[in-house]
Amino acid sequence: MLSRVAAVKAPRTHNRRRVTGSSGRRREGRESERQRPNMSRHHFYSAVLLILVVMMCCGTGGAADTGEHSTGPNIKWKDLKDEGEGVTVDSLGVPGLLKVENDVFVVAEAECKKGGGDNFTGIASQRLTTQTANTPVEVLKPPNDKTQVLEKNGSSVVEKIDVSRPTTVVEGNDIYMLVGKKIWTPATNPEESEADEWWLLLVKGNVTEVSGGDKKIYWKDTTDVPRISIDEHNDFLTG
């Protein structure tokens, strides 16, 4: 049963707005005056993700036109619990909900920590059951079992790839997720670290049934989003 939510009455707005002129007196303008459009970062990413998915489904342009921007087989997702002891999830943030057929999942950014202080981020997800939906219980616990991280296997070292601020959309049984990406390379000097510049990743995932009758999202296909795709649609999205 859904809980009752108290409605808060917003203050009444007027059709006129006041603007202070150069003389110090206030001028009144009409509501019909053109105002600068405002779009939050989350809505911007959601719109970009929808455009990318449409481009992929139609087989035109964007990140799906060639393999030029593909991350390749050396990029793979890994369950955080397979990292061994000493790895913990410090916090969860940027949560969101998505529905695949009759199942609802929560997806969130997971701030992880390993050993002596190596920090990286992954993606945590969990299917919501009747129990978690109808009662105020914590989800994504234990977090290590619900989190996946992205790794790049190089010739000599394994690099953790930070993935942050997930935005998702569902197309049929396929889940598309847009995340920020940053690759951290272990440095020889403990006081120094090297990192590639920020980028965007488009990730495709599917729901798979696991032991015990539960279901889990497995992320697999990962594609770099060309920056030109964002630039071309920026004016269209922001006005």
> How would a crystallographer describe the biggest sheet?
10 strands, antiparallel
Note the overall shape. Answer: globular
- Which regions are unreliable across 5 or more consecutive residues at pLDDT < 50? 1-37, 60-70
Helix segment count? 4
**Helix vs. strand class:** alpha+beta
H/E series, N to C? EEHEEEEHHEEEEEEH
pLDDT averaged over residues: 72
Question: What level of helicity do the residues show?
Answer: 10-25%
> What is the distance, rounded to the nearest whole angstrom, between the alpha carbons of the first and last residues?
41 Å
Rounded Rg: 22 Å
> Quick one: how many beta strands?
12
Query: Which percent band covers the strand fraction?
Result: over 45%
- Oligomer designation: single chain
Kindly list the characteristics that best describe this protein:
239 residues, alpha+beta, ten-stranded antiparallel beta sheet, two-stranded antiparallel sheet, 4 helices, 12 strands, disordered N terminus
